[in-house]
Design a protein that fits this description.
One of its GO terms (molecular function) is oxidoreductase activity. This protein is mainly α. Helix content is 43%, strand content 0%.
Length: 322
């Protein structure tokens, strides 16, 4: 903890105009959810992260900076993004994610769950249909950072300070969404990926007739052991961290049925993002398979892949062939 605080104190403040952590949060929104479907899970207070991202996509202020510059440095993208009213809009949207401190650990668990679902959907669902998957290097960090929330909750002594940490995460998510060109979550794209990823050149086992089930059958196959065994040899530590995060999320939420992600539906019972009614806990193993296929099953002879740094939200970033 002391080392972490020392490292933090040695750095300049990260875009301080994006945060409003000194003032009390606004009064809790009283949202009337017209849907009577009990599977439509919603936050105890305020808006869900998926709802906030929907509003960020619909906001004219949050439109990505134009024209697209494929060679722009990240610092230049930040400077350009923090103009034309975007910092104020990010503060407004961030304030919608409210923390019900009276719920204690149950609230922290729900917020960590929202972070992991949303960042997974953003990383793997921001590609384009009919194109090879491309995984944004910076959005990957949003996923990996989400894993640390539960551990940090244990280290922070008061519920109020834990709530402040949570409130600080949303502006970071939204500004990175902006500097990556505001890539859109395509939930149907995520679900289109296989939930039984297999390594290339996999030698299919030949089970004895006495075996119960068969690893050759998708219904009997567990892809996690092979992915975990392979990713520990990944030359890029980010790849290992991403699969680690997805494995953790799969263990906790992997059996969630379709449409039960917090904020999958809005107050009217409509999907916050197209395809959310179909999204279930399998998104984490699907996402891990995409990470492995994209970054390389190096222990199976596949060459190392690479993270994408083009800025996938801009249409022009997709002009080149796969």
């Amino acid at each position: 903890m002391h080392a972490a605080l020392a490292q933090t104190a040695a750095h300049s403040a990260f875009q301080p105009d994006l945060f409003d952590l000194t003032n009390a949060p606004p009064p809790p929104d009283t949202l009337t959810y017209k849907s009577t479907d009990p599977t439509h899970r919603q936050p105890s207070k305020g808006h869900s992260l998926l709802s906030i991202f929907r509003q960020a996509y619909d906001s004219d202020i949050m439109a990505p900076v134009m024209p697209y510059d494929p060679d722009a440095l990240l610092s230049a993208r930040f400077h350009a993004a923090c103009t034309d009213g975007r910092p104020a809009e990010i503060r407004r949207l961030s304030a919608l994610w409210q923390v019900d401190t009276a719920r204690g650990q149950a609230e922290l668990d729900d917020k960590a769950e929202e972070l992991l679902w949303t960042t997974t959907l953003l990383l793997v669902g921001s590609g384009r249909r009919g194109r090879a998957p491309r995984l944004d290097f910076f959005l990957m960090h949003m996923l990996n950072a989400s894993l640390f929330a539960p551990s940090l909750f244990k280290a922070i002594p008061t519920m109020e300070s834990k709530a402040t940490l949570l409130r600080a995460l949303v502006p970071v998510l939204l500004i990175y969404l902006t500097v990556r060109g505001r890539p859109r979550i395509d939930a149907e794209l995520v679900i289109s990926y296989t939930d039984t990823p297999r390594a290339p050149n996999e030698k299919l086992l030949q089970p004895d007739t006495s075996a119960i089930g068969s690893p050759q059958e998708s219904a009997d196959f567990n892809p996690w052991p092979a992915m975990v065994a392979s990713v520990v040899y990944a030359p890029d530590a980010h790849t290992l961290k991403a699969v680690r995060t997805l494995y953790y999320a799969a263990q906790r939420y992997g059996r969630r049925p379709p449409g039960t992600a917090i904020g999958a539906f809005d107050t009217e019972g409509r999907e916050t993002h197209t395809g959310m009614a179909k999204v279930d806990g399998s998104i984490f193993v699907r996402a891990a398979g995409v990470v492995m296929d994209t970054l390389g099953w190096v222990t199976h002879g596949q060459k190392e892949g690479s993270w994408d740094r083009s800025g996938l939200g801009w249409d022009d970033a997709w002009k080149n062939e796969d």
